[in-house]
C-alpha cells in the first residue's frame, strides 16, 4: 500500500493495476435500482458533462440560474432556506425543491409524480417560466456554439453532435451518481461499527412503529401519494393534477427522509421550517382534510400519538440520516 502511494505521489499512474472508477454502486442495504442503466450507461466523461451542465446557468434564459441554484449540495441538493424555490428574475415557484439524491430508486418524479422518466425531468425546470424560462432548442443552440461543450460531448459520446437525448442522458448520469447511503444510520444498519445514542435508538423504534408505514424501507418512502393532514393552503391540488381523480386531491408523494435535517423547509410548500414543527404537526396538528390518509385517522383519533419526549427522540433519530460524506463529497461539488 505504502509503495503504491509513493508511486502515485511520484506522478506515475499504475495503468495496469488501476481499477476503473466505479461511479454507481448499489449500497448493501438498498434494494435494486429502478433506472434502466442499459439505455444510459454511466461513463466518466458522461458524468463530467452532466455535472458541467447541472452547474451551468447557460441552461436558463438569461444565464442567471443553474440547476445547482435550487439543488445545492450542502442542503442535500435542495434550495436552502426557501419554502417555495425562487427562479429567474427572482420569480417565486409554487413548490418546495426536492432533493436530487438516490434517484435511481425512483420511477416517478416531482411531488405529484408528474414525470415518469428521469431523463425527461430537466425539461420541466428549463421550460418553466418561473424557474429557468428557456426553450430546450435554445439551450442546445447555446451549447453548440459554446467554446467548451462540443468537445465535452465528443469525449462523452464520440461525436461533437449535440442532441437533446444526449444532453438529457448526461444530466441523468450525473444525477444518478448522487447516492446517499453513508449516514450514521446506514453504518449502524450495515454493522460497520456505528452505535446510536439511547435517544436515537428509541427514536428509531418509534419511527418504525409510527412513521415507517409511509416512510418505508431504506429509501424512507413507499413511493405512494398520500395526504398527511397538513391544512389546505393555496391551490396546489397535488396528485389529482396528474390523474384527474378526485380521490387523489391533496395527495403528495411520500418524500424520502434521507438528509432530512438539512433539506428544510418541509412539505411540498415548505410550510414547516423545523423538524420539531413537523413532529408537532403529526402529534397535534393533523386536520380532517378530504382524503386524509386512514393511517392518520384511526378509531376517530386523528394524528400520531407522541409525547414531547418521543418527538424529541424521533428528531434525534432523523438526524442520524444526515450523510456528511455525501454532502461534502467534492466529486459532486461545483468546483
Ligand atoms: C428555480 C428552482 C429550480 C431549478 C432552477 C431547478 N429545479 Fe429541480 N426542482 C425544483 C422544484 C421546486 C422541484 C419540485 C417540483 C415539483 O414537485 O413540481 C424540483 C424537482 C426536481 C427533481 C425531482 C426529484 C424527485 O425526487 O422527484 C429533479 C430530478 C430535479 N428537480 C432536477 C433538476 C435539474 C436537472 C435542473 C436543471 C435543468 C433543475 N432541477 C432546476 C426547483 C428547481
Ligand atoms: C400516512 C402516511 C405518513 C405517515 C404515517 C407519516 N408521514 Fe411524513 N409525510 C407523508 C407525506 C405524504 C408527506 C408529504 C406531504 C406534503 O408535502 O404535502 C410527508 C412529509 C414528511 C416530512 C417532510 C419531508 C420533506 O422533505 O419535506 C417529514 C420530515 C416527515 N413526513 C416525517 C414523518 C415522521 C417523523 C412520521 C412519524 C411520526 C411521519 N412522517 C409519518 C406521509 C406520512
Care to describe what's here?
It is a single chain. The protein is mainly α and 335 residues long. The chain folds into 2 domains: 26-179, Orthogonal Bundle (Cytochrome Bc1 Complex, Chain D, domain 2), CATH 1.10.760; 184-325, Cytochrome Bc1 Complex, Chain D, domain 2. 33% of the residues lie in helices and 2% in strands. It is built from 13 helices and 4 strands. The chain has helices spanning 2-9, 44-54, 67-70, 123-127, 136-145, 149-157, 164-176, 184-189, 198-210, 240-243, 275-285, 308-319, 324-328, and strands spanning 225-226, 252-253, 297-298, 301-302. Strands 1-2 form a two-stranded antiparallel sheet. Strands 3-4 form a two-stranded antiparallel ribbon. α2 (44-54) packs across α7 (164-176) and α11 runs antiparallel to α12 (308-319). It starts with a helix and ends in a 7-residue tail after the last helix. The model is unreliable at 1-16 (pLDDT under 50). One heme C binds next to α3, α4 and α7. One heme C is lined by residues 210-211, 213-215, 226, 228, 230, 252, 254-255, 257, 260, 263, 266-268, 275, 278, 282, 293, 295-296, 304, 314.
Compact summary:
This is Cytochrome-c peroxidase. This protein has 335 residues and is an all-alpha fold. It folds into two domains: 154 residues, Cytochrome c-like domain (Cytochrome Bc1 Complex, Chain D, domain 2, Orthogonal Bundle); 142 residues, Cytochrome c-like domain (Cytochrome Bc1 Complex, Chain D, domain 2, Orthogonal Bundle).
Amino acid at each position: 500500500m505504502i509503495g503504491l502511494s509513493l508511486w502515485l505521489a511520484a506522478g506515475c499512474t499504475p495503468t495496469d493495476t488501476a481499477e476503473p472508477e466505479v461511479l454507481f454502486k448499489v449500497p448493501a442495504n438498498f434494494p435494486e435500482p429502478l433506472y434502466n442503466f442499459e439505455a444510459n450507461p454511466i461513463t466518466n466523461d458522461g458524468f463530467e458533462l452532466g455535472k458541467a451542465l447541472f452547474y451551468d446557468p447557460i441552461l436558463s434564459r438569461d444565464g442567471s440560474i443553474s440547476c445547482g441554484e435550487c439543488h445545492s449540495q450542502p442542503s442535500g441538493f435542495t434550495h436552502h432556506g426557501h419554502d417555495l424555490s425562487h427562479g429567474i428574475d427572482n420569480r417565486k415557484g409554487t413548490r418546495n425543491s426536492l432533493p436530487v439524491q438516490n434517484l435511481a430508486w425512483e420511477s416517478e418524479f416531482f411531488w405529484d409524480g408528474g414525470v415518469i422518466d428521469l431523463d425527461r425531468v430537466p425539461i420541466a425546470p428549463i421550460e418553466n417560466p418561473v424557474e429557468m424560462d428557456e426553450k430546450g432548442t435554445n439551450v442546445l443552440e447555446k451549447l453548440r456554439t459554446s467554446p467548451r461543450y462540443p468537445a465535452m460531448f465528443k469525449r462523452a459520446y464520440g461525436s461533437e453532435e449535440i442532441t437533446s437525448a444526449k444532453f438529457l442522458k448526461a444530466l441523468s448520469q450525473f444525477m444518478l451518481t448522487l447516492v446517499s447511503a453513508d449516514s450514521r444510520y446506514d453504518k449502524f444498519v450495515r454493522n460497520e461499527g456505528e452505535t446510536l445514542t439511547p435517544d436515537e435508538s428509541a427514536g428509531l423504534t418509534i419511527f418504525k412503529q409510527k412513521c415507517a408505514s409511509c416512510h418505508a424501507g431504506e429509501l424512507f418512502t413507499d413511493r405512494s401519494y398520500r395526504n398527511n393532514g397538513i391544512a389546505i393552503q393555496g391551490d396546489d391540488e397535488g396528485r389529482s393534477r396528474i390523474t384527474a381523480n378526485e380521490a387523489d386531491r391533496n395527495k403528495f408523494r411520500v418524500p424520502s427522509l434521507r438528509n432530512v435535517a438539512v433539506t428544510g423547509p418541509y412539505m411540498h410548500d415548505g410550510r414547516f421550517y423545523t423538524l420539531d414543527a413537523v413532529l408537532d404537526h403529526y402529534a397535534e396538528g393533523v386536520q380532517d382534510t378530504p382524503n386524509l390518509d386512514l393511517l392518520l385517522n384511526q378509531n376517530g383519533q386523528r394524528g400520531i400519538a407522541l409525547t414531547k419526549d418521543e418527538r424529541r427522540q424521533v428528531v434525534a433519530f432523523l438526524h442520524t440520516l444526515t450523510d456528511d460524506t455525501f454532502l461534502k463529497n467534492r466529486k459532486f461539488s461545483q468546483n
